[in-house]
TrEMBL record:
Annotated compartments: Membrane
InterPro entries linked: Bulb-type_lectin_dom, Bulb-type_lectin_dom_sf, Kinase-like_dom_sf, Pan_app, Prot_kinase_dom, Protein_kinase_ATP_BS, S_locus_glycoprot_dom, Ser-Thr/Tyr_kinase_cat_dom
Highest taxon in the source lineage: Eukaryota
Residue span, Bulb-type lectin domain: 23-148, 775-900
Descriptive protein name: non-specific serine/threonine protein kinase
GO cellular component: membrane
E.C. code: 2.7.11.1
Origin organism lineage: Eukaryota, Viridiplantae, Streptophyta, Embryophyta, Tracheophyta
UniProt organism field: Dichanthelium oligosanthes
Catalytic activity: L-seryl-[protein] + ATP = O-phospho-L-seryl-[protein] + ADP + H(+); L-threonyl-[protein] + ATP = O-phospho-L-threonyl-[protein] + ADP + H(+)
CDD domains: B_lectin (cd00028), PAN_AP_plant (cd01098)
Main localization, broad class: membrane
């Protein structure tokens, strides 16, 4: 920038500075006109002309906070004489050294009337940062200040003159309305009859009365909003004058005490965050209003809400209208024996007589010897309001009015009552003792009941919490125990129409089963365990965990559970054909079970049991296999249910013992029923009994009805001893065994009667294997499902779904040796892409003759990608005795394969 321009900018800067400079003084040479403003040196307060409402044409001279957005006026000069012609109004200092406000016509609207007699060369007025507008002589002598003439607001450091020479000195007068600063009806001043209390007046009638002023209730009292600032209130006694004042610590926000037109005396603090005034306190409220509880009544503020109460020994005049006050239960009479009752924490009544220079005993004696004295109060004062007297004895000879009970600024009131304290206590004891005895009896009974009830409830809560903690915990492999939803009891009640009998589809020793419809129109079966059910918490937890972790097409699917107080409920998939015994043992429905259907049911049950015993990563012993626990879906596919009695075996465990034998007699193996020993053979025995029931159509215990034998097993034993075949054997059993080439070598033994006790489980186990083993090929019409196994022609290798013990949440399709005890894998299809859904998928052929592994959501996990063209003929996957899985088309020579797994060998 060129140097010649510098003087120009300096000149402009000086002009702008002079325009923006704020002046806090009013001089005789420069009066204040509309539009002009005085601003205190620190910018806290401003003085000028203002209009309280936008619609109003009246102007006033006032002081307000300068640097907050909401104009808050704290002092008004001409509150009862507004300026109506503002064009030539002005505030000036006269030759008589007075402040004078005049309008355009020269009429005086307001003046200070100083009556200054001391001479001087002139005067000036200054607006201080305290909000005080002060008129001073040139030598700084103060001749008038606005703090001596407050309107409706007391500011910090202001000395509010309560009394002078024992007379009321200053009144704080509220505005007439929110936009009308003229003198209102509400005002506040010290009690004109004493210097001991302050009133809020509505006109000339008392509206609210403070507690007695003393060094305990006011002087030195403190309001602390937070750790950053504190407000102190105090009474200042200068001899013949009594002042009220409060101060704020450094850094405190703006504060003010305001009496408003509604009758509230508010302590307000400015909140910079919200840009609003925060109300710290605003008495009065409720029954705090003067005499609102009537004679001998008091406002009790110790409860949740203020309420009117009667003094001890008094009762309401009108219980529906407490403003009428209270009356004595027994009238006082001069010459009668009486005593003084101590009432602590009281706001003492109005209209007292102050007796000076008395000790406590002298104060009591003064009241006792005066028959008209109804009560007295005493306080020892160290300073302030007593004008030199350090004691204060107050007595009441008339009606006790405007009392209260609170926790602060209170003292003891001594009330005269009829009778002696000892006699009254004796009479009271006669009344109270029977009442207390009855109450103690009731309380003891109630406590015992509560203790018992809470004990039961606590026990239930502990059981429920332990169960939920267990269900949300992880097993030894680091997996969550189960992951399925908890259904609310409210939803279950709605689904079953409040467990309507019309929705009940079954019941047993465990409880009842209901059909229900959950949200989304999903049909479910809800098993509600009865309170007297044999299935307890352990069995309930067993069933939840096992069914949730075991996923197989021949095991019932658990959808969720509910634990609510005493209720334990399990929610299953709904199977429309109910249970096997519903068809098998009913003469009308039995014909629906044609042999192909029975064969499919037996085969499905066998697949489920083998999955529990061999193919799942857990070895599960069901212990309660029977026809009623086999459920049938709409396609008559069987699903094993009711795992409440099931037990888990470790990998190296083969047998266990129990002192609690559970299950159904007739289906139990002898060693389990008599000795409590159970193993996989126990379920195999139960399956054999179930097989006999399906083949014969008879219950295990029903032959005595037609053949005089206690059960089917004894009947078979008898047939063995007679070297004859069972009646039903020739009709059905050959047809059942005919598909099982593996058992052809055992059929002669069976025909010779080896289905007796000793060989029964072994025979049935081999029969189960025969039923469950698939052939050695997979076709388009027959996909490989979880639980299915392809076995090579010579029984050397097997292919199917499996999970590794260190990865229980993942499943694979692989090939392993079939006839050695320790499963050894030779090939895995999806080794880098395990199935991670809870329900394993399926291995299927596509229309393009690709072999595809899908998870339960239909996502492709693995595929052969053969790219066989249309017209190649029917395609099949064959598991060879070499362990090779070969995909071939019909009509091709053995060497011409579309795919074989030896191309993708793993580590063998």
């Amino acid at each position: 920038m060129d140097v010649p321009y510098l003087p120009v900018f300096a000149f402009l800067f000086l002009i702008l500075s002079s325009l923006c400079q704020c002046n806090n003084q009013l001089t005789q040479a420069k009066p204040l006109s509309p539009g002009d403003m005085l601003i205190s040196e620190g910018g806290v307060f401003a003085l000028g002309f203002f209009s309280p409402a936008k619609s109003s044409k009246n102007l006033y001279i006032g002081v307000w906070y300068h640097n907050i957005p909401k104009r808050t006026v704290v002092w008004v000069a001409n509150r009862d004489n507004p300026i109506t012609t503002p064009s030539s109004a002005r505030l000036a200092i006269t030759k008589n050294l007075e402040l004078l406000l005049s309008d355009s016509k020269g009429h005086t609207l307001w003046t200070t009337k100083n009556n200054v007699t001391i001479g001087g060369t002139g005067a000036f007025a200054v607006l201080l940062d305290s909000g005080n507008f002060v008129l001073r002589l040139q030598n700084n002598t103060e001749i008038w200040k606005s703090f001596d003439h407050p309107t409706d607001t007391i500011l910090p450091k202001m000395l509010f003159l309560l009394s002078s020479g024992g007379q009321v000195a200053t009144r704080l007068v509220a505005w007439k309305g929110p936009d009308d600063p003229s003198t209102g009806d509400i005002s506040s001043s010290i009690d004109p009859s004493s210097n001991l209390q302050v009133f809020i007046w509505n006109g000339t009638s008392p509206y609210y009365r403070t507690a007695i002023i003393n060094d305990l209730s006011v002087s030195g009292s403190m309001y602390q909003s937070n750790v950053t600032y504190v407000l102190y209130q105090s009474i200042v006694n200068t001899g013949d004058k009594l002042y009220y004042s409060y101060t704020a610590s450094d850094g405190a926000p703006y504060t003010r005490v305001l009496i408003d037109y509604t009758g509230k005396m508010r302590l307000l603090i400015w909140n910079n965050m919200t840009s609003f005034w925060t109300v710290v306190s605003e008495p009065p409220s409720g029954c705090d209003l003067y005499a609102s509880c009537g004679p001998f009544g008091y406002c009790d503020r110790t409860g949740v809400a203020p309420t009117c109460q009667c003094l001890d020994g008094f009762e309401p005049v009108d219980s529906l209208n407490f403003s009428r006050g209270c009356q004595r239960k027994e009238a006082l009479k001069c010459g009668q024996e009486n005593h003084f009752l101590t009432l602590p924490g009281m706001k003492i009544p109005d209209k007292f007589v102050h007796i000076r220079n008395r000790s406590f005993d002298e104060c009591e004696a003064e009241c006792r010897r005066n028959c008209s004295c109804l009560a007295y109060a005493y306080a020892y004062l160290s300073n302030a309001s007593t004008m030199g007297d350090t004691s204060r004895c107050l007595v009441w000879t008339g009606v006790l009015i405007d009392m209260g009970k609170a926790t602060t600024a209170t003292e003891n009131l001594y009330l005269r009552l009829v009778g002696s304290p000892v006699k009254n206590r004796s009479n009271l004891a006669k009344i109270l003792l029977p009442i207390i005895a009855c109450l103690l009896l009731v309380a003891t009974t109630a406590l015992l009941w509560i203790y018992k009830y809470r004990g039961k409830r606590k026990h239930k809560e502990i059981q429920k919490r332990r169960m939920l903690e267990y269900l949300r915990s992880t097993d030894e492999d680091g997996d969550k125990i189960i992951e399925f939803p908890f259904i609310s009891f409210k939803d279950i009640v709605a689904a079953t129409d409040n467990f309507s009998e019309s929705n009940m589809i079954g019941k047993g020793g465990f409880g009842k089963v209901y059909k229900g419809v959950l949200q989304g129109a999903k049909e479910v079966a809800i098993k509600r365990l009865g309170k007297g059910s044999g299935q307890g918490t352990e069995e309930f937890r067993n069933e939840m965990v096992l069914i949730a972790k075991l996923q197989h097409r021949n095991l019932v699917k658990l959808l969720g559970c509910c634990i609510h107080e005493d209720e334990k409920l399990l929610v299953y998939e709904y199977l429309s054909n109910k249970s096997l015994d519903y068809f098998l043992f009913d003469s009308e429905r039995k014909p629906m079970l044609q042999w192909p259907t029975r064969h499919k049911i037996i085969q499905g049950i066998a697949r489920g049991i083998l999955y529990l015993h061999q193919d799942s990563r857990l070895t599960i012993i069901h212990r309660d296999l029977k026809a009623s626990n086999i459920l049938l879906d709409n396609e008559m596919i069987p699903k094993i249910s009711d795992f409440g009695m099931a037990r888990i075996f470790c990998s190296d465990q083969h047998q266990a013992n129990t002192n609690r034998v559970v299950g159904t007699y007739g289906y139990m193996s002898p060693e389990y029923a008599m000795e409590g020993a159970f193993s996989v053979k126990s379920d195999t025995y139960s399956f054999g009994v179930l097989l006999l029931e399906v083949v014969s159509g008879l219950k295990i215990s029903s032959p005595h009805l037609i053949m005089d034998f206690p059960n089917l097993i004894v009947y078979l034993e008898e047939q063995k001893s007679l070297s004859t075949r069972p009646i039903f054997y020739s009709l059905e059993l050959n047809r059942l065994l005919s598909p099982c080439c593996v058992l052809h070598d055992h059929i002669p033994l069976a025909k010779q009667g080896l289905m007796g006790m000793a060989y029964f489980p072994v025979f049935i186990f081999l029969f189960m294997v025969c039923l469950c083993q698939s052939d050695d090929r997979l076709t388009l019409a027959k996909p490989l499902m979880p639980g299915d196994v392809l076995i090579s022609d010579g029984g050397v290798f097997a292919l199917g779904f499996f999970s590794l013990k260190n990865s229980t949440s993942s499943s694979y399709v692989g090939i392993w040796y079939n006839n050695i005890p320790e499963r050894t894998y030779g090939w895995i299809a999806n080794r880098d892409n395990p199935i991670t859904t809870n329900v394993p998928g399926k291995l299927v052929f596509t229309n393009s003759s690709d072999l595809v592994l899908l998870d339960s959501t239909g996502r492709t996990i693995w595929t052969t990608a053969n790219n066989i063209t249309a017209g190649s003929g029917e395609t099949a996957a064959v598991l060879l005795n070499s362990g090779n899985l070969v995909v071939q088309s019909q009509g091709k020579i053995p060497e011409q394969h579309e795919y074989h797994n030896f191309r993708g060998a793993l580590d063998v």
